Amino acid sequence: MSKKIMFYLLVFLLVFAAGCSSSSGSDSDSAGASNVPQELTYATTSDAVGLSPIDTNDSVSSNVIAQVYETLFTRNPETMEIEPLLAESYETPDENTWEIKLKEGIKFQDGTDFNAEAVKYTFDQFMDEDRAAPRASLLAPVESVEVKDDYTVVIKTTEPYGPLLAALSHTNASIVSPTADKEGDINSEPVGTGPFAFEEWAEGDHITLKKNEDYWQGEPSLETVTLKVVPEYSTAVSMLETGEVQFLDKIPAEHLSRIESMSDVEVQTKPGTPVYYLGFNMEKEPFNDPEFRKAVAYAVDRQAYVDQLNGLGVKNDSIIGPKVFGYDENAKDAGYPYDVEKAKQIIEENGFTDQKVTLLASNSGSYMKMAEIVQSQLTEVGIDAEIESMEWGTFLDTTSEGNFEMTFMGWTNSTADGSELLYPNLHSDNIGSSNRMRYSNEEFDALVDESRTLVDQKARQKKLQEANKIAMEDAVWIPMNHDVVSAAYDKSVKGLELDPTGEWKLYNVTRE
After folding, report:
1. Could you say which protein family the record assigns here (predicted)?
2. pLDDT value for 247
């Protein structure tokens, strides 16, 4: 009997011990999950140009700006509707007046009060011709910004301005600390009201942000955010695989299958607003000749390029894309189709035979792929094309100065409004700044102007569709693809949501 009792007692103890071990293991796993460092490293192939919303206009810089600064309004990524952010509400007493009430009790990261004076200061600087803000066109119709009281600002426009709320939701319209801008250089040490504060910038290597513990909506979960410059995307993919970085975006098609095979990585994609294109310098010959541009348009097989994107892009002839206000489905196939014989005929008839051209591209993977494909296709129709590549910041300066013949660029469409695509990029007002192609067409300009001054959204859409058609006929841009925005991130990263513009914010992100 005693042996049986001892046997059953031993079995009981073993089962009990196993149960405790299992429970303990579960507690340990739970604790381990909660102890994941609240740090996130994002890999970017290019460094930021600057960190001031007033003084920059590129997507890499905007990635930092969107974490540090905030705008008066924001666009809901699900509904695409404009909603108040730093603003509390607004009203329009007349068609040229916008009275905006601001949220109270908010401070900049340097302790400066957010108020109407800060908004006025920011927008006055943004519109100052001497400061020459690259995206000053966002507020081009604004006549004055006045302080009504501590938390009310009144914006007067020279004429009705339909896209104003969309413009005020743009990253470059973020509100800056007047103190920081007056006393320092916010292009290298930014100060906003956002959930993350600037800590350090080692140019060419990394930018580090830390959480803003006094953030007005409550401090974020992430303690630190690092934007790591990794020039080769393949290297960044390897770093994602080993856990050295936890987040990549704008996935090149050639890396998609490798990333999707990683068991600890999530991939997120959605139809987006960005458009990527081949453009011409209209102030140089023969690129100012519509027949030459048409020949190039016929020579470029954009579907062949899109087929290599593995679902990360779509072919569409329209300059205004499907996710952007003003899009017309009829424009999808209304451009110049791929037709080698037609291209050769135009080249021969107009004396473009053996024409030498230089294709300028930034040294990032997608733009270089475009350049290589177009180079091959132009060679096929008798155009001798040479590729010149350069670093992103230098590329932006070079194209802004007009020192190119043909180039590849993209536009994020951060406002998702066609007016804020066509006006900055192709309106003659902006030749020498954001209109890098130096395009000038009076009929086009008039239609775009009307699209900005009308308040009736259906009427605005019609004007945009007409302007879009003119630009397409002029072959000012040859759209290479409209984007499917993408991101890859470690499975420990929770709460990351891509905007259709490809932008992202890290306030709601945590690691588990």
Report:
1. Belongs to the bacterial solute-binding protein 5 family.
2. 98
